[in-house]
Amino acid sequence: MPSIKSLDVDGNVIYVTSFSKTISPGLRTGVCAANEKIIRKLTICKQAVDVHTGLLSQAIVNEFISAGMFQPQVDKLIPLYRAKKTIMKNAIDKYMPDSFISTDPDGGLFIWGEFTDGRDVAACFADAVAKTKVAYVAGDSFFADGSGRDTLRLNFSMPALEQIPVGVKALGEVIKEA
């Protein structure tokens, strides 16, 4: 899918991404593309928080990209992530409550879901993780006004293919009980 930034003709979109799901899961190095004035402000904010990103991880990313290894890596990951997404989507359809509707994304690493019955998945997060060892991001994290407590985001990039239906089933059972 083309990024929204690729469609930005006025310089109003800030694009932020990381290399943790493409080069290496533990590699916490990212990139931000934005208007120069915005980048200057973001740089000041980042320096106030942690001075700078580690030079070793930046050198690894630079070498990986400079050696022409990035695009072949992405091309290798796309079918794997597509398979994981399909398995998760099928498991959601099978194991989550009927009141749960979810996206079927054409790209990315997440499935977004919403409970049409108003179920508060933010409130049952700690209990769900403790019982299932399956984590999700409660949707209220994505709403500036604190709403979205009936939504969640599921990531399919980390678990092995065979773990996905097991995890979704366990999560669905705990959420149905809540």
Explain the overall architecture.
This protein has 178 residues and is an alpha+beta fold. It folds into two domains: 5-67, no CATH class; 78-177, Aspartate Aminotransferase, domain 1 (Alpha-Beta Complex). Helix content is 43%, strand content 13%. It has five helices and six strands; from the N terminus they run ββαααββαββα. Strand 3 and strand 4 (110-115) form a beta hairpin. Helix 3 (70-95) crosses helix 5 (163-177). It starts with 14 loop residues before the first strand and ends with a helix.
List keywords for this structure.
178 residues; alpha+beta; Aspartate Aminotransferase, domain 1; 2 domains; 4-stranded antiparallel β-sheet; two-stranded antiparallel ribbon; 6 strands; globular
